[in-house]
Specification:
Blueprint: H1 3-30, E1 39-43, H2 49-57, E2 62-65, H3 68-78, E3 85-88, H4 97-100, E4 106-110, H5 113-126, E5 130-135, H6 149-161, E6 165-171, H7 179-200, E7 206-208, H8 215-220, E8 225-228, H9 230-233
Helix pairs in contact: 1-2
This protein binds pyridoxal-5'-phosphate.
Residues 43, 45, 66, 89-90, 211-213, 227-231 line the site of pyridoxal-5'-phosphate.
């Protein structure tokens, strides 16, 4: 990008961010919630460091990456930028855990007890503890990653007992393309959280759900963290894909 393109892109990011904050506030209001209960995470997996820097300039502070290598690269490039955090939102293999430790603030994608144990033991070796979300396949779609609802019920307290993992809440991905199914998945995530809270006494305050096409529905159903990629970074996205 040359300078004028960079400036035009930064202007787009700023305007779009204001629109998104307004839509988040409206969705929260419809559900009788405070806008401040919802964190806007910008998924930067499709853009490069200059675009992330431009996003920081207009006020974004929370970013998400789905590949360990890319997360580490961007964290290192953004070192020195104030108040910036990167979360790991994609599939995490055990052999990549050491890579993300110390770089990712919150790991959204703990998909099994086995993975949680591996994270805890590697974190212990470094004397740190890792904030995590359990990724749950609420819709039951075969193509979706995440543990089943019954698996989450079985292992949440075991994961909670691991010494170097802090379970902050739950994450899910909704089926694409259908508003009703998306709403059911988000509501299901909240209901699972309420059930686990009652049964095992874990607070699980974070519900990570909602993406570009469905984040307003997710907020209406209790999301505390929306993960937005295209609608943040892609000028051609508009609201064409928005589910209604
Ligand atoms: C890419 C991605 C997103 C963002 O998706 P958009 O539809 O571009 O908003 C959110 N969560 C995860 C896990 C992703 O991989």
């Amino acid at each position: 990008m040359d300078l004028s393109e960079t400036q035009a892109y930064a202007a787009f990011l700023g305007t779009r961010r204001e629109e998104l904050l307004e839509r988040i506030a409206q969705a929260a209001k419809r559900a009788g919630r405070e806008p401040s209960e919802v964190t806007l995470l910008a998924v930067s997996k499709t853009v490069d460091v200059p675009q992330v820097l431009a996003a920081c300039e207009v006020g974004y502070e929370v970013f998400g990456e789905n590949r360990p290598q890319e997360l580490v690269r961007k964290v290192n490039a953004l070192r020195g930028s104030k108040n910036v955090r990167f979360d790991m939102i994609g599939n995490l293999q055990t052999n990549k855990i050491n890579k993300v430790l110390g770089h990712a603030t919150l790991v959204h994608s703990v998909t099994s007890l086995h993975l949680a144990e591996a994270i805890s033991s590697r974190a212990a070796a470094r004397g740190v503890s890792v904030q995590c979300l359990l990724e749950v396949n609420v819709s039951g779609e075969e193509s979706k990653s995440g543990m089943s609802v019954s698996e989450a019920e079985l292992c949440v307290s075991k994961i909670g007992d691991l010494p170097n993992v802090v379970v902050e809440g739950l994450m899910t991905m909704a089926p694409a393309g259908k508003a009703g199914e998306a709403r059911r998945a988000f509501a299901g995530l909240r209901e699972l959280r309420d059930e686990l809270r009652a049964k095992v006494g874990m607070e699980l305050p974070v519900l990570s759900c909602g993406m570009s096409d469905d984040f307003e529905i997710a907020i209406e159903e209790g999301s505390t963290l929306v993960r937005l990629g295209r609608v943040v970074f892609d000028p051609s996205y508009g609201d064409a894909g928005q589910l209604r």
